[in-house]
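Review session, final week

We close the course with one last complete record, chosen because it touches almost every idea we covered. It is Probable chemoreceptor glutamine deamidase CheD, a protein from Pseudomonas fulva with 172 residues. Go through it on your own first, then we will talk.
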Amino acid sequence: MPNRPSIAEVYLNPGDYHFGGPYTRVRTLLGSCVSIVLWHPHAHLGGICHFMLPTRGRPAKQRDGRYADEVMSLLCEAIAQSGTKLAEYQARIFGGGHMFPGLAKARRNHIGQQNIDAARRLLAEKKIGCHGEHVGGFGHRNLIFDIWNGQIALKQTQPLAVQEPPAGKRPQ
């Protein structure tokens, strides 16, 4: 039986990203945040981010993985350094859940939806085809990405209901 290399485990916190090769498993937990997963089916390379917001309010000198537009730039740079082309990657989008389903405020344009829209826009701008998505809804997602074969394991958990107090009975 041939020796199989050990699998490196990487956990992404909000604002993190990872780009690497085979025998790497990347895990993250998404609520309203979004992950863009990029996978090269022939080179067995992949990238994944965990962004919190579509964009930063004001420009900064250093790019930050918390913002969709900036982390996409960082991933594109890593892809270029690997000697592969962005057009060769398959993309998928995950996350953007509404974390407070019982609250009426911001139901349509909650931050999760804004993050989903940003991810779709960035892929369209970069002319990367989206090969799948599991986005929106309520609750959080536990995501596992195996870079060596491009497989995704996903589990979505519904949040506990949060209800607004009746009108006139708000805590002081």
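Two points worth writing down before the exam:
The beta strands are 8-12, 17-20, 24-30, 34-40, 45-49, 90-95, 130-135, 140-146, 151-157.
Residues 8-157 form a domain with the 60s Ribosomal Protein L30; Chain: A; fold (CATH 3.30.1330.200).
Good luck, everyone.
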